[in-house]
Design a protein that fits this description.
Elements: H1 3-13, H2 16-38, H3 44-68, H4 76-103, H5 107-126, H6 134-152, H7 166-176, H8 178-194, E1 198-199, E2 202-203, H9 212-246, E3 254-259, E4 266-271, H10 272-301, H11 304-324, H12 326-331, H13 342-347, H14 349-354, H15 361-388
Antiparallel strand pairs: 1-2, 3-4
Helix pairs in contact: 1-9, 2-8, 2-9, 3-4, 4-5, 5-6, 7-9, 8-9, 8-10, 8-11, 9-10, 10-11, 10-15
Length: 389
Amino acid sequence: MSYLAFQLKKVFKNKLTPVCLAILLLLMGIVLFMNIRTNPQFSLQAGAKSEIAYRQKEINRQQRLLKHDKQKSKTEVYHDTKAAIKQNQDAVKQDKQVQKAANKGNWRKAYTIMWQQKKQERTIISNGQDSTGLNSRTNVEKKLQFFNYLRHEPLPYESQDMPVTGWQFLLQLNQQYLPYVFTLVALFLLTLFLTDSYHQKLDTAQLLPLEKNNLMISNTIAGIVLTLGSFLGINLVLFIVASLISGTGSLSFPYIVVQYTVSGPLIKCVTTGSFIIKVIVLQALTLIFDVVLVQFLARIFRDKLPALLIAILLVPGLNIATMIVDPLRKICAWLPMTYLNAVDIVSGNLGMNYQNMQLNYTTGILTLCCSILIIAILILLSSHIKYKK
């Protein structure tokens, strides 16, 4: 039996691996259950219904104000209130049309009306009639681009706030939960695996009649199989469960991508399929980086506990630190730990939040590849020095 086959067998026979993965699957299953329960409240019809209720309250309030206005048509406030009532009444009619069209499956009509509403909102903001901030203006522009895409490609509506379809649910998991929780589990399992050959800080694997490079390559491949295999396995199981319950959804459904620039955010819609491919590539590189980093720390500390603690401080710890420490935020594009959440990187949300133009998919690929290569060279150098001794 080759050393690589032995290491792979050790990975699959470790009892902690299935236990940790089962706990992760259970937690993500609870998220899916909660999404299924609350998803009806985030449908297009439910959104239109809540808008109707809100605008109807506004109409009633404004009509009461008119009744108490003794000057009636003589004041400017009176005319403004009348105009606001008319505007709200028109919006209620549009929302009712959206409800009716969505119920009948006439998605093109529903999306066109929604696009027209968002276009009106943008016009109001552009004319300075609304004192909303940058985030609100960006959100309106996102919705405008989103419904503009859908009115030309009238696909059935899929909620991205509480998604239940296979593809959209995977994207939510990999944006909000899985990268952080899985990274902790992966670092724990990798530390146990890669420090297993060290006893009283002596590397027993060096006693085997194998070249030092073969040992490193075998450990790296086994670590990659452990992390990538587990990550893809969890995603596959959750995708199948979500798809069996609510369908897979469409890979042509739009996903909003933002690019931060000096002149302001550039917003566009891409297909879910093309978006997911970039996320997979970036997430895979992030996991490979975790493998080589833990292997390097294992060679330095030759003990489970210090290697695990330093790995946690460097990966999730430094990722959190970039949110708080301003100097780190300025250089975060060149820190591989920043790319823990591949969905936020590819979508441009993190670049917008940090107002960093360099924080994007291309920089992430470059940074992670260079970091993996540098750490791999450091591992080879440390092995060469110890071999000489």
